[in-house]
From TrEMBL:
Region Disordered, residue ranges: 77-96, 120-144, 304-325
Compositional bias of kind Basic and acidic residues: 125-144
Organism from which the protein derives: Candidatus Agrococcus pullicola
Transmembrane segments: none
Protein name stated in the entry: DivIVA domain-containing protein
Compositional bias of kind Polar residues: 307-325
Taxonomic placement: Bacteria, Bacillati, Actinomycetota, Actinomycetes, Micrococcales
Amino acid sequence: MSEPSSQFAQAFRGYDKEQVDAELQRLKDQIEQARRSAVGSRQEADAQIAHLREDMEAAESRILALQAEVAEANSRAQSAEARAETLGQEVMDGDDENPARFAEILRVAEEQAQTLIDGASQQTERMHEDAKNQAAKLRKEAEEDAERILAEAKHEEQQARLRIQTEKSAHEAEIEERSATLDQRTQQAESEAQVIVAEAERASAALRSQATRETDALRTEAERIMREAKARELELDAAVKRREDEAQQEYLRLHNQALAHAERITQDANEKVQSALQHANHIAEQSKAFEDLARAQAKQVEASAVAKSNSILSEAQTRAQSIID
């Protein structure tokens, strides 16, 4: 009647509570079923004993009936004997002249009466003996059946208790063994978890260090680009300044030449001065246009450098954050 024990699923630091409760409930159900089976066997034995008692009571009633029949047979025999005496007396009273015939009738009557009495006595003794034997046989069979049924019920109850105790001990031993194995596995899992956590912390520290180094490198690169952009801007400013100085010097030179020519040339002074002024204005306009172009280029280079620097910094921060995460 034993069933294969189910394997418990392992939970953290122990067995799954629902499965343990289910297994305990199954054991309780088996115990209750065995108890009901024992009670049913005992009730069945009690019913059979009651039935045997009814049979014994019926046998005793039969014995009483047979005894009544024996008493009735004895009564009939006594009645027959009394009647034989009565007949004998009547014969003696009515037939005094023939004593031989009277004696013969009396002898026959006495023989018949004795035969009836002997037959009734034998039948009574035989019926009484049969009733006693039947009652003893029924009583013995009833006692043997009752003892056998009680012994079988007790044996079945003992076997059920033994099976229940054996299964209970086996389950307890299995639970203890699984608990010890689970504790060992739990300790091993905790040790492995500690190793994994330590390795993860080392890996995380290494990644953070790498991210910091890469971030520093990217920041250094961005700063270098900014410095180069600033240097380029300064170079452009210096070039513009040189062009402005050159234009100013050229203007001064031409102006001086114009003054010198004005002194030397009186007639064409106005025309040459005018021409020189126009030429100087033209050069000044070109210088101004070049200056504006140079400044625009410098601003464009600076804006491009700043945008590139911001892009590099943003990319560095994104890579660093992804490495840290």
